[in-house]
Amino acid sequence: MHGEMMDQIRHQHDFDGIDHANEKRTLSVVILTGITMVVEIVTGALTGSMALLADGWHMGTHAAALGIAYLAYVMARKFAGSSKFGFGTGKFGILASYTSALLLGGTALYMIVESISRFIHPVTIAFNEAIVVAVAGLVVNVLSIWILHGGGGHTHNHHGHHHEHGHDHQHDHNHTKDHNIRAAYLHVIADALTSVFAIVALFAGKFLGWNFLDPVMGILGGILIARWAWGLLRSSSLILLDGINADGIKEDIVKTIEADGDSIVGDLHVWPLNSNDLAVALSVVSKECRSPGDYGSRLARFQNLKHTTIEVHIRHDHHCPAA
Fold first, then answer.
1. Measured on CA atoms in the order 136, 138, 144, 146, is the torsion positive or negative?
2. Band of residue 60 on the pLDDT scale cut at 50, 70, 90
3. For residue 312, how many C-alpha atoms fall within 13 Å in the half-sphere facing its CB?
4. Is residue 66 helix, strand or coil?
């Protein structure tokens, strides 16, 4: 009996929130994007197209970001179950996203500055060669989107247990969403849009003589990357600092626990385990003899609460009968 109880208590605390089946898919897109990046940058430099250079550097940032995402998969898998990480490796992907955002921001600034310089010092553009490579880049973007989207299986893991020793730990891994694969998907979509910008600028320059549109598209591409980088930086840094956007969930938890008219939430902490899942630790004061499992069952409707710790205090001199 004692052994069974210890097996229940010594459970795994690994909430990575990652679908590791996407690891190989991400690596394929990294290789494909990296090759295309080199071709676009070299061709853009030789043909003098700032829009194509912008698209190449934009694709380069995505190749780097996707590479970091792949590394996060590898590291999360390597350290899965390690005692070094109290709640598992769920934030490896978040750290990768934060790093990607910094790379995106730096590249966006470079693109904008370089595009502005092209207004001051225009160069001759070899439109035919640049158009061919830009279209090829767009094809690669579409292929990357298909790779990331087409094989996107989801995992379902279900396990649960309750402890009647002052804590209640609930684990209910439902439909898992992979932050890394979502970030990679958004990266290649943004890259495809930048490719479209480059193609439009090159065709306008070739057939209408609007060469000014080339650096304009470079600036627009830089702004697009900067906005995306800022949003990614904000969301990833919030998770790394254990912040949550949905403050309303705290109010809902309090209302759910206190719905019996007797229980009072004395202390409450909610923090992210990864990009999707949350942990909660709370203390409840009550006159009735309720177990942590009773309060834990009330919170079962919150599907993203994957780790719940509940401490129960009995008010006044009321004593609960021995279990």
1. negative
2. confident
3. 24
4. helix
- Judge residue 275's burial from the number of C-beta atoms within 10 Å of its C-beta, 0-12 exposed, 13-18 middle, 19 or more buried: buried
Number of Cβ atoms within 10 Å of the Cβ of 3: 7
How would you label 170-181 residue by residue, b for 16+ Cβ within 10 Å and e otherwise? Answer: bbbbeebbbbbb
Query: What is the full DSSP assignment across 264-317?
Result: EEEEEEEEESSSS-EEEEEEEEESS---HHHHHHHGGG-TTEEEEEEEEEE-TT
Q: Dmax of the chain from CA atoms?
A: 88
d(CA 181, CA 88): 19
Could you report the per-residue pLDDT of 127-177, keeping only the tens digit for each?
887 888 888 888 988 988 888 876 444 433 333 333 333 444 444 333 345
175: helix, coil or strand?
A: strand
Can you tell me the distance from the alpha carbon of 68 to that of 159, in angstroms, rounded to the nearest whole number? 30
> Token digits for 251?
């109010």
Asked if residue 124 has pLDDT above 80, the reply is no
CA distance 322 to 261: 24
Residues with Cβ < 8 Å from 266, sequence gap 6 or more? Answer: 282, 283, 284, 285, 313
**Do 215 and 50 form a contact (C-beta atoms < 8 A)?**
yes
CA distance 56 to 276: 32
Structure tokens at 277: 């899942």
The enclosing H or E element of 111 equals helix 92-120
